[in-house]
Amino acid sequence: MSKSPCYVFLLLCFWALPLTVTAQPATPEHSATPTLNNSDLVNVRLGAENSWPPYSDEEGQGISTELIKAAFAKSGVVPSFQTLPYARVLHDLDSGKIDGGFNVNRQSTTEAKYIFGDVPLFTVEAYWFFLPGTHPGVKSFQDIPNKFRVGVIRDYEYGDEYENHRHRFNEIKVSQQSQIIRMLKQGRIDAGIMFEHEAEFNMRKMQLKSSLFDKRFLNHRGDVYVAFSHKSPRARWMAQQLDKGLLELMQTGEYETLIGDVLNNKQQPTERTTH
């Protein structure tokens, strides 16, 4: 009888042992809860515009794509790209079919619809181009007469000031920058709005001299971003990771190198059809 209490005590310890072992894996290395820093759990679906060389060409390749891949790589995130017409990129952003899309100009109309980070991919400048000697009195928005024929790319954003005057213009909407160049050269439009590097890229490709047109005045200077969908549950986190990566690229000098490689035709984006 004197062994019974000891026997019972040992049995109780034996029964309690599995409970102790089961409760032990509460350490961080055994935690089954995924964290957002685990890149294996992150699938970033991005819509790549298919009509804006040298930033993003018909295959979705160019300055924008290279910057995005390099920036996300700093966080161990590998994005997947869907190459789409720009209008489709915006549509899929609205519907939540993709997490983000580029190249979106940040202005009042887009800030109301999408989530943006703090760091732009880059800043672009768009100008009003004329045939030399034509419309000499037009030197600013205020000088442009009503019904002025202006060539623009369908669905592109051209800044808040342009939006204020847009109703006065006779917009000739096309799909490619090369179409604006041809129409302006032939006198079928009064002026064309073109982004500086894109115009240079296309005129070089078309074997045209830059002196063919008069780059008259600045339309707008705009920051171009990856816009993220409000319907994506990790949109703000993805924007933060992209910001961190872009800042690191700028600090290390990789940013300028990547852009230089594309502009120097080390990566040859070709012009695409669009929207």
UniProtKB/TrEMBL annotation:
SUPFAM superfamilies: Periplasmic binding protein-like II. It comes from the Bacteria. Residues 1-23 form the signal peptide. Residues 43-266 form the Solute-binding protein family 3/N-terminal domain. Transmembrane segments: none annotated. InterPro entries: Solute-binding_3/MltF_N (IPR001638). Keywords: Signal. Belongs to the bacterial solute-binding protein 3 family. This is ABC transporter substrate-binding protein. It comes from Cellvibrio mixtus. The lineage of its organism: Bacteria, Pseudomonadati, Pseudomonadota, Gammaproteobacteria, Cellvibrionales.
